[in-house]
Design goal:
Layout (H helix, E strand, L loop, with lengths): L1 E4 L4 H12 L5 E4 L7 H11 L12 H6 L11 H10 L8 E3 L5 E3 L3 H8 L2
Parallel strand pairs: 1-2
Antiparallel strand pairs: 1-3, 3-4
Helix pairs in contact: 1-5
Length: 119
């Protein structure tokens, strides 16, 4: 399993604490430094069963600069959203855990982390 984190994020630190407490084996990806490609983002979205706007942090300054809140949330605009996430990784919701069964979860709660561990 892999977890995408920003070490400055309290939710990410909490998720790591749960993983460690459960004795989980995982790889940490500091996604602001090791930026996921558009293809990797598409793959994680497929695993999550979500759309790019579902994992976008729209309150970030760069989101406001880009005017993301006004962007259409439809199939025709999907690629534009993916490219924005790849170009501005700070927009990606965190933490994201890719589970052993091929799924993924946005692990913002301890319960979501445990859910990923149970897969």
């Amino acid at each position: 399993m892999e977890i995408w984190i920003n070490p400055a994020c309290s939710k990410c630190r909490s998720a790591l604490g749960v993983l460690d407490a459960e004795g989980a084996e995982y790889t940490v990806r500091r996604y602001l430094e090791d930026v996921p490609s558009a293809d990797e983002i598409r793959g994680v979205l497929e695993r999550l069963g979500l759309e790019p706007w579902d994992i976008t942090r729209t309150q970030e300054a760069v989101a406001k600069e880009l005017g993301l809140k006004e962007w259409p949330r439809d199939e025709a605009s999907r690629e534009r959203w993916v490219e924005a996430l790849a170009a501005h990784p700070k927009l990606i919701q965190r933490p994201i855990i890719t589970a052993e069964d091929g799924t993924a979860v946005v692990a913002r709660t301890d319960e979501a982390v445990r859910d990923a561990l149970s897969r």
